[in-house]
Design brief:
Mean pLDDT is 81; it is low at 1-8 and 204-221. This protein has helices at 214-217, 223-229, 263-267, 288-303, 314-334, 347-352; strands at 2-3, 6-7, 13-17, 20-23, 27-31, 33-37, 39-42, 54-61, 70-80, 82-85, 88-91, 95-99, 102-106, 109-112, 116-126, 129-131, 135-153, 156-174, 177-179, 185-188, 192-202, 205-206, 209-211, 235-237, 246-250, 284-286. The strands form seven sheets. Strands 3, 5, 6, 12, 13, 15, 21 and 23 form an eight-stranded parallel beta sheet that branches. A five-stranded parallel beta sheet has the order 4-11-14-20-22, with no helix packed on it. Strands 8-9-17-18 form a four-stranded antiparallel beta sheet, with no helix packed on it. The longest helix has 21 residues, at 314-334. The chain folds into three domains: 1-40 and 83-130 and 182-217; 44-80 and 134-174, no CATH class; 220-368, no CATH class. The protein has 368 residues and is of the alpha/beta class. 16% of the residues lie in helices and 42% in strands. It contains six helices and 26 strands.
Length: 368
């Protein structure tokens, strides 16, 4: 594809949908975009239930009440019936792919018997999925209620402490993804090299990954980001936006993040007074679930207890800490003690605190 001797290959968009590109030798692809995608379908013979790509097991028992814990007691669970007719790009020797924009591989296979080299702005390797309807879930918590009764007995005053096991339950709904049984796969028998300028998103399988590209190395000095990347694919690196103002993002296939409240949810409350008016929507290091994990880790390490406050789950704990942060901010400000969100607390501020608070410090990360 040329124009007066000038190669225009990098303007091409190649769509290989449920197709096969195969060579007994080498394959070289130069394009703007390469979409190697599957045709997905429901493997159910009878789809009259209206659930495309999945079946539902209703009210699966998950747990009984456990003292001092909030747990899912029962829930609807999806069973994927989504199938994909995969595309294949395969060579008995080397495959070299150069795309100026994105390589998108969905429920399909790119496989080299020797070396696979990919250079792109973005590399996305994922598995076909469909979103389920809002499925039922029942939560339960158990705790001990205690109270005292006092009175005269045999001419002496005394008190008796009474204990009673209490339970509470409530329901909500959730939506999750049902994944195809055909996974997105990039594989090489020898070397697999991936260079990406903007991002690498790997939803399923990369085999023999020699180099995971710049997105993983831009934050190499940030221990929290390094740990998040290494956590069994549970987190991915997100370029913060106004809608998603955080760097570390939980993969939706692992956790329903809508069930967690943390800083971004609480920053939006109108009564949060310690926010800088010039920066009403701070960018945080991680999303709500990631923040829950970090706070739980701090509670365990510093108090040797699972809960900071008895019978408070992590959502309630965040709420209480934010309320107390507001109160302490106003009190310390009235006392003339300097306290600024994003700045480490001074010794004077720490000494003046009368309640537990949650506080945020600024950290600079280069986002490419």
């Amino acid at each position: 594809n040329s124009n007066n001797g000038t190669n225009n290959n990098l303007n091409l968009v190649i769509n290989n949908k449920s197709g096969v590109i195969k060579s007994d030798n080498n394959i070289t692809i130069n394009a703007k975009t390469l979409n190697n995608t599957a045709y997905h379908y429901d493997t159910k013979l009878d789809d009259s239930d209206g659930y495309y790509g999945y079946d539902v097991n209703e009210k699966v028992v998950k747990s009984d009440y456990v003292m001092d814990q909030t747990l899912v007691l029962e829930q609807d669970e999806q069973i994927s019936t989504l199938g994909s007719k995969s595309s294949f790009i395969s060579a008995l020797k080397d495959i070299t792919i150069n795309v100026s924009d994105e390589l998108f591989n969905s429920s399909s296979v790119i496989s080299a018997k020797q070396n696979l080299s990919i250079t792109a702005n973005k590399v996305t390797n994922e598995t076909d999925s469909v979103s389920t309807h809002e499925m039922y879930r029942l939560w339960g918590k158990k705790w001990v209620r205690s109270w005292k009764t006092c009175g005269w007995h045999n001419w002496s005053w005394g008190c008796t402490t009474h204990y009673e096991d209490k339970t509470n339950s409530w329901s909500d709904t959730r939506s999750e993804l049902a994944y195809s049984k055909n996974k997105g796969t990039l594989s090489a028998a020898q070397n697999l090299t991936i260079n990406a300028n903007e991002s690498i998103t790997n939803g399923e399988t990369i085999q023999n990954n020699e180099f995971l590209g710049q997105i993983a190395t831009n934050f190499q000095d940030n221990r929290a980001v390094t740990e998040a990347i290494a956590t069994n694919g549970q987190f991915k690196i997100n370029k913060p936006t106004q809608v998603q103002p955080y760097l570390i993002e939980t993969r939706s296939e692992f956790v329903d993040i809508t069930q967690f409240k943390a800083s971004q949810y609480l920053f939006a409350r109108p009564n949060i007074r310690f926010l800088d008016p010039a920066m009403p929507n701070p960018i945080t290091l991680g999303d709500a679930y990631w923040e829950h994990q970090q706070l739980q880790k701090q509670i365990n390490e510093q108090t040797k207890k699972a809960q900071l406050y008895a019978n408070f789950d992590m959502n309630a704990t965040f709420d209480r800490l934010f309320n107390q942060s507001n109160e302490e901010y106003e009190k310390l400000t009235d006392q003339g003690v300097e306290i600024t969100l994003g700045v480490s607390l001074s010794k004077a501020a720490i000494k003046a605190l009368t309640q537990d608070i949650i506080w945020y410090e600024n950290e600079e990360s280069a986002i490419v």
